[in-house]
Amino acid sequence: MGHVRGQQQRPSQPHWVHRRTRMACALGRIALGAAVAAPTGAVLAVALTPLSAQAQNAGAPGARAFDIPAGSLEDALSRFGRDAGIMLSFKPEVTAGRHSNGLKGTYTPRNGLDALVAGTGVEVVPQSNGSFLIQPASSAASLDGAVALPTTHVTATYDNGLQPAYAGGQIARGGSLGMLGSADAMDVPFSTMNYTEQMVRDQQARTLADVVINESSVRMLTSSGGFGEDFQIRGYTVSSSDVGLNGLYGMASASRVPAAIVERIEVLKGPGTLMNGIGPSGSIGGAINVVTKRATSEPITRLTTTFQSKSQLGVEADVGRRFGENQEWGVRLNGVFRDGNTTLDNGKQNIGFGSVGLDYTTQRLRWTLDAYTQHEGDDNFRPQIGFQSSVKKIPDAPSGYRNFYPGSELHLHDSAVTTRLEYDVLRNVTVWGAVGYHYATAYQTFPSGPADALGNFTVMNSYYDSYTRSRTGEVGARVNFRTFDVGHTVTVQASRLEQDSGNAYVPGSTSVASNIYNPSPLPGIGAARTEAKKASESALTSIAVTDTLSFLNDRVLLTGGLRHQRVALDNFSTATGALTGTYDQSAVSPLAGIVVKPLQNVSVYANFTSGLSRGGTAPVGTVNAGQVFPPYKSKQYEAGVKADWGPVTTTVSVFQVQRPNAVTDPSTNLYSFDGEQRNRGIELSAYGEVVKGLRLMASATFYDAKLTKTAGGTNDGNDANGVPKRAFNLGVDWDTPWVPGLSLNGRIINTSRMYFNAANTLELPAWTRYDIGARYRTRVAGKSVVFRANIENLFNSNYWLMSGTYATVAAPRTFLLSAQIDF
């Protein structure tokens, strides 16, 4: 599969990309028309020297100044594609070992590209979609620079609408931002991280959680092998139910997203309500979007066998093909099956997953359809526990192999189908629509009983079964235009997400004494399981408008917008079916952002965003029980600097996120959202390819998280519980020079201590996790084969992870092995 460099030609991108891409596309068609019109074997002499090209184009329409230093051809092409706003496609082997003399002067994009590759042994072939293919120079190329043009047959290349990979291939140059579309990370006023499929495969990721922990601002609140996955971004919880699937909420599994479906993982740090709307759980710390796999220009037939300790074997299949005269049709199939013993005491897990991704792509029309189904069955899943209010010190974490609820069971099932259609009405006008349906069920035992300081607790077992049904849809339009010297990208979007959910809770009748270090088997429940009944119905409806303005040759970019969101909720008694509460409120979320580029490779940005969460209802026992509260807003202020040094990008950002909290006044017993938590922080990061073959990801986050308003002022000024003071990540991936095909990798994840409660009387200790791995690429019987081996939690550290008022023990040392063969 080829590498892609430069801006993507997508209608969803800001207008400054389209302007240059349309120009490049026109120039490409002119050059291509001349080539096709020429008789077979005709020779067209092209002046390729930088001086002559500059003289010819200094006054040409669309010409601009370039200053690209000499270096590797791959780096030079990457820089040129980005500066010129055009799309370049090439395979890694085409540029490997080739050097460019750089480019300095004024050129049109096409002639600048010709000048850049002069004397490198490659040639430029324009494609029908406006992109350019870089390939080895044909044998007919003469020594004096004249190029023989054979009869040309052009087919469209398919790029999946994705931003190209950055140096090293682990991180993408940018990603999608909901209704704002897809853009380079240097052009957006937000802090983002976009992981590629290469990162997913090389780390042997099993789920979404295995990837997002590569950055210090993101932490897992639950451990692998538990009932689900919850995340923390900038110190605030992001529920797994708020993960987007191709930009749609409610379509991804609320338990865990399998890595087999992933092409990209896009992480936005900070509230994303304006770009994405309210998630089902109203998470405000950030937004995570999963982009599913599509068929690529190169056929894919990949089989991977896997092993995971304790003794879990698996097989994964990945098949992709494109069809049609111009490869306009694509199909991508993925399947996973794993079964065997887990690292947990007496743990067994069975996983089955299957997905299909279809697409149809022409110059003006893009259609996709995705469907998946997954099932997971666990005998003994990783437990979580609370602590008694009298506890003065949290007990040490038990072994990660220990299941302190022996006999627990969990069965999860998810199925979904989504489809999206985009159409370019005019060159500068795009409309789109998308719909989706998702149904999920969970059947589990539900042990409960808080522990004391010695780890003693009394446990009762129960059944807790649930379902969620989601239907979603969105429509939108985007138009690019200019008013005098100011460019505009105006986007309008409307969306609706409907969900109904139900549950059945059957408590047990007996309790037994137990201990987290020496647990007793779970007692019997003594009652029959019942069918889940409807508990709630909700509808999230919104309409939004944004405008991105560009000034001074795109060196200043301003983005502003508003989203009006309506939240309707009905609650029902699962026993009688009676309506127990209703809610219908609305609010507006604003966005303002700016990007200033004092240098070509430096972006200074700032933003103000407002997150929106569904308001709560005063609980029974308060004087205003049943009172419904409107959606509450969370505010973020952020500023930062991004610098792209070519092989490495560095970022620094400062932020403040304020969120209202629910409190009950101790003197009046009045429940309200008058509480507040304020998280301030500094983020530092660096990623890319430091030197050829050495990839790096390093980040650090420093928090000052405070409870600024609490019930009765009792805990005002305390550290926010569940938020560490510091978090660090360091990951390296190195291609060894002495053994071709052998790569080694390592990762260190560190999190400082944090308080477990708002009173700051209980705390969880700091922890550090070390991971190592290796992979070996070779050929067997003419087929590409990759062997991978990873060890997570190398030193088998035992430590607590915190989610709300519960804690779970991190997974122990885990071995991962796989063998991948491409047919």
UniProtKB/TrEMBL annotation:
<keyword id="KW-0675">Receptor</keyword>
<dbReference type="GO" id="GO:0015891">
    <property type="term" value="P:siderophore transport"/>
</dbReference>
<keyword id="KW-0472">Membrane</keyword>
<dbReference type="InterPro" id="IPR012910">
    <property type="entry name" value="Plug_dom"/>
</dbReference>
<keyword id="KW-1133">Transmembrane helix</keyword>
<keyword id="KW-0732">Signal</keyword>
<keyword id="KW-0408">Iron</keyword>
<keyword id="KW-0812">Transmembrane</keyword>
<feature type="short sequence motif" description="TonB C-terminal box">
    <location>
        <begin position="806"/>
        <end position="823"/>
    </location>
</feature>
<dbReference type="InterPro" id="IPR036942">
    <property type="entry name" value="Beta-barrel_TonB_sf"/>
</dbReference>
<dbReference type="InterPro" id="IPR037066">
    <property type="entry name" value="Plug_dom_sf"/>
</dbReference>
<dbReference type="GO" id="GO:0009279">
    <property type="term" value="C:cell outer membrane"/>
</dbReference>
<dbReference type="GO" id="GO:0038023">
    <property type="term" value="F:signaling receptor activity"/>
</dbReference>
<dbReference type="Pfam" id="PF00593">
    <property type="entry name" value="TonB_dep_Rec_b-barrel"/>
</dbReference>
<keyword id="KW-0406">Ion transport</keyword>
<feature type="transmembrane region" description="Helical">
    <location>
        <begin position="26"/>
        <end position="48"/>
    </location>
</feature>
<keyword id="KW-1134">Transmembrane beta strand</keyword>
<keyword id="KW-0798">TonB box</keyword>
<dbReference type="InterPro" id="IPR011662">
    <property type="entry name" value="Secretin/TonB_short_N"/>
</dbReference>
<dbReference type="InterPro" id="IPR010917">
    <property type="entry name" value="TonB_rcpt_CS"/>
</dbReference>
<dbReference type="InterPro" id="IPR000531">
    <property type="entry name" value="Beta-barrel_TonB"/>
</dbReference>
<keyword id="KW-0813">Transport</keyword>
<dbReference type="InterPro" id="IPR039426">
    <property type="entry name" value="TonB-dep_rcpt-like"/>
</dbReference>
<comment type="similarity">
    <text>Belongs to the TonB-dependent receptor family.</text>
</comment>
<dbReference type="InterPro" id="IPR010105">
    <property type="entry name" value="TonB_sidphr_rcpt"/>
</dbReference>
<feature type="domain" description="Secretin/TonB short N-terminal">
    <location>
        <begin position="86"/>
        <end position="137"/>
    </location>
</feature>
<dbReference type="Pfam" id="PF07715">
    <property type="entry name" value="Plug"/>
</dbReference>
<dbReference type="GO" id="GO:0015344">
    <property type="term" value="F:siderophore uptake transmembrane transporter activity"/>
</dbReference>
<keyword id="KW-0410">Iron transport</keyword>
<protein>
    <submittedName>
        <fullName>Ferrichrome receptor FcuA</fullName>
    </submittedName>
</protein>
<keyword id="KW-0998">Cell outer membrane</keyword>
